[in-house]
Every structure is written in C-alpha cells, then in structure tokens.
Design a protein that fits this description.
CATH superfamily of the largest domain: Periplasmic binding protein-like II
Number of strands: 11
CATH architecture of the largest domain: 3-Layer(aba) Sandwich
Structural class: alpha/beta
Distance between the termini: 56 Å
Strand content: 15-25%
Largest sheet: 7 strands, mixed
Helix content: 40-55%
C-alpha cells in the first residue's frame, strides 16, 4: 500500500469523482485512475463500484476510508511536530521545586491554554537529578540553576533569583559564616544547586562536617526554620509566596547568592513544545524589561 495512493483515494472520495480529484491534485485524470487501480491491486479488493460516470464506495472502500483519514492525519501531525509549528502530544518538563512553586504556575496555565493538545507532565527535583533525567531522555527540558558547561545541552536564561539566609524570628543578625557556628543547616539533598551556594558561603568543600537536616519541601524547610531547628538558604521568590512565614531574613553577599535559572534542553533536539515554551518565556522577559 502506497501512502500517496491513499491520499489520491481520499481526494476521489471527497471530490466525488476522478475528474474533480485530478483538478484538485493538479494531475491528469488518467494518472488518478491509475493510482486507484494500483491501490485496489495492492489491497486485493474493489474499492469503488463504477456506475456510468459515477463512483460509489464499496464496503471495503468504506473501511479503508477510515484508516486512510487516520493515517493522513497522523502524517500531518508528525510533520507539524517535527517542524516545530504546532505543539501536541506528551511534554515532559522538569523543574527545581522553588521554580515550580514561585515562577511556573501562571506560565504553565498560559501554556496549557494556548496548546490544549499538549499533555504536560511536570517533574521536580534537584539540579543534578534533573540534568540526569534530561540526559537519559526522560525529560524534554528542565528549569535548573546551574546549566552544564559541556556541549550536550543548550540553554537560555529565564529567571534571576536572589538567595537569602533565613532563621527564626528571634535569632541574632547573621553577617558572616562564623555567626552560625554550631547551628544546624536545613537544605535540599545532595545535588541541589542552592545547597552548593550555601557551601560556598560557608567556605566549605562539603557539608559533611555540619549538622544537616535534608528536606525536599520548601514549606517543610521554612516551618523547621521558624521553629528554631536551624538556618537555611532559599530564593526570595519562594519566601514571597509565603507571606505569613515567621522567619528572619539575613542578606549575604550578592556575588554568592545571585542565581540565574535557565531552561535547558538537549542540543539539536528542540521539539515543538520546547520551542513554544521558549517563545513564551522570551515574550515574558521582553515584557518585564519594558
């Protein structure tokens, strides 16, 4: 069965005859007739009943028409997806927990409204875990804070974040690393970019020598900090989404706490959904600069 023959077959049915189908397809009638005969020969059935100058679908032709329409539609969808014009299908997106909570709700709501044929699946995790998922082709793109330096990925900066140190409300001012000596640190597990920022501020190669409480929820981290369990480093945008949090902010040097969140994808593999999201984000950044 030839795909081009199916397209000709569908046109003959829609146009009600060979002559009109030939005009639509910009072919001579004899070429269209030949295509139909070739299709009937390959299928081993008669697709039309011929009555004088009119063609009527046979029962076999009725069955084939449904399949032809589906195959042609799938072909059109594949062309649109590959060319990056109309997003549809599954879109597996990764994000840092902080980005998902404070930055993405409105963006994903707009994306969902624009592209209702996209089934978006959002996965949250640490910077390193998301990169691993992306490299393993379990994600199409991800929002992370530390884009890789190798050539396997491409990225665009999206959000500028400012990290701040937080403690319980009654804690004394914290200006330098020695001011928290003996205290517990509360952070996301290993692989978190903000955890590494905390290490840099502390001047430590790792947090092995510190008492660390590993948590995977910013709400849990803020609650523990407010209760006096320890201190934590987190984006101000997350705190802004928790206006009733009973914590005290302690600014530390901008050089160590200024972070850019980027959208990352595999080099040379920009699917239609990733391209659409990049376009949406670029428009958002342009509006914010205006």
């Amino acid at each position: 069965m030839n795909f081009a023959d199916l397209q000709v077959f569908k046109s003959v049915v829609e146009e009600g005859g060979v002559i009109r189908a030939a005009s639509k397809l910009h072919r001579v009638p004899s070429a269209v007739t030949t295509r139909i005969k070739q299709l009937e020969a390959s299928m081993g059935v008669q697709l039309f009943h011929r009555e004088r100058q009119r063609l009527h679908l046979s029962p076999a032709g009725e069955l084939l028409l449904g399949y032809a329409e589906r195959l042609i539609q799938l072909s059109d969808e594949a062309r649109e997806v590959v060319s990056g014009t109309t997003p549809r299908g599954d879109f597996k997106l990764g994000s840092l927990e902080s980005t998902a909570a404070s930055r993405l709700p409105a963006i994903l709501a707009e994306f969902h409204g624009r592209y209702p044929n996209v089934r978006l699946e959002l996965t949250t995790g640490t910077n390193d875990r998301l990169l691993g998922e992306l490299a393993g082709r379990r994600l199409d793109a991800a929002f992370i804070a530390e884009p890789p330096g190798d050539g396997a990925f491409e990225h665009v900066p999206v959000f500028s974040e400012r990290l701040t140190l937080i403690s319980s409300e009654d804690h004394a001012p914290i200006k330098r690393a020695r001011d928290i000596r003996g205290m517990s640190l509360i952070a996301f597990p290993e692989g978190c970019s903000y955890r590494r920022a905390l290490q840099r501020w502390l001047g430590a190669d790792s947090l092995v020598t510190f008492r660390v409480l590993d948590l995977s929820s910013y709400h849990a981290i803020v609650a523990c900090v407010a209760a006096g369990t320890g201190i934590a480093l987190m984006p101000e945008s997350v705190l802004a989404a928790m206006p009733h949090a009973k914590v005290r902010k302690h600014p530390i040097p901008k050089a160590q706490t200024s972070v850019t969140t980027s959208l990352v994808w595999r080099r040379g593999e920009t699917c239609a959904s990733v391209l659409a999201l990049r376009t949406q984000l670029a428009s958002l950044r342009k509006e914010n600069r205006a």
